[in-house]
Amino acid sequence: MILFSKTKSALQQLDELLLWVLISLLSIGLVMVYSSSIGVAAASRFSGYQANYFLIRHVIFIVVGIAVGCIVFRVPVATWQKHAQHIFLFGLFLLVVVFLPYIGKEVNGSRRWLSLLVINFQPSELMKLCVVLYAADYTQRKSNVGHLFKKAFLPMLLVMSLTGSLLLLEPDMGAFVVIFCVALCTLWLGGFNVKVFGGLLAALPFAIWALVYMAPYRMKRATSFWDPWSDPFNTGYQLSQALIAFGRGEWFGVGLGGSVEKLFYLPEAHTDFLMAVIAEELGLFGVFVVLALFGLFVVRAFQIGRHAAFLERNFAALVAQGIGVWIGIQAIINIGVNMGVLPTKGLTLPYLSFGGSGVVMNCVAAAMLLRIDYENRVSVRS
């Protein structure tokens, strides 16, 4: 009875709006993953010709994510701060292990996964959370020398360069962009020198150009999205099919389950291009709903961070805002890719797309955000 009353008391102090946003995103994702994967699953020998193959696996991923999230929620934020550097080193270690024979697994030319017998784990998804924790801890530790390039920016630049190099070797350009944005925004939110940020932002276009120029396939992606119809059956194939899906959806869509593009026309319809299926089946209305939910998530993350900063819980504030940047940037990139605004990246839509590692780590991030909000409320009441 005592344990039940404590649990009930803790639940009553959670952010109801954030909880409903998370439930809505996971629910929409569950329905749309099933809808977008029926045809592929029914025709795949790997799935044993079961139309609900991806649905069952996605349900399992969500259940595991919620279970792990419940465990994470019980861990005080101070514990995460204490071990932030060790967690980051562990993430780096896993990025190296990916390249070891018989342990790392290569899929479609990319070596991003660790084979764990039953499932494949993607360390780059864990690394996003590791960078959020490390950047928040680093920013707080270096707050007194935030105006000095050598003592504040240079060490972080070297660490992120090492992390980025490992990600680009996989290659995983999408995760690299997200992690870079999280680290940069955390330093900015932590009050580091504005002039140095100006220099970094000025150098950013040259760095992006160098990364694109170094890999021919990136150059093709960077140029094909400008006009996918110039080569609709090769470099512009995915984007042209995604745009057809958006066009067919119009205002209110063709109806749930009525997508044509998901039937072997649009590759990765249940992962990277899930938003295109949402647009086709639910129309512009469905797209606006998803955008509104992500907008609410990011706003609440920054509000929780601001509240923590007001209570002088600086590490918690930066973690909350870092999670908001992570989810917001990844959602923007994924949706931008689906709409042809950005070059194709291997990034899933947070909380919605099929993918075990991504779903679990998204749930962990949400649990950590809820924990920060919970500690904020407890601090105010005490």
Overall form: globular
Multimeric organization: single chain
What percentage of residues falls in helices of 4 or more residues?
over 70%
Measure the end-to-end span: 24 Å
Number of strands: 3
* Structural domain tally: 2
Report strand %: under 5%
Give the secondary structure arrangement, pairings included.
Blueprint: H1 2-12, H2 16-43, H3 53-73, H4 77-82, H5 84-97, E1 104-107, E2 110-116, E3 119-121, H6 123-141, H7 149-169, H8 173-189, H9 194-214, H10 216-224, H11 237-249, H12 274-310, H13 314-338, H14 356-381
Antiparallel strand pairs: 1-2, 2-3
Could you walk me through the main structural features you see in this protein, from its secondary elements to its overall organization?
With 382 residues, the protein is mainly α. The protein folds into 2 domains: 1-82 and 228-382; 84-214. It is 70% helix and 4% strand. It contains 14 helices and 3 strands. The protein is globular. Residues 1-7 have low confidence and may be disordered.
What's this model, at a glance?
This protein has 382 residues and is mainly alpha-helical. It is 70% helix and 4% strand.
What brief labels describe this structure?
4% strand, 2 domains, globular, mainly alpha, three-stranded antiparallel beta sheet, single chain, 14 helices
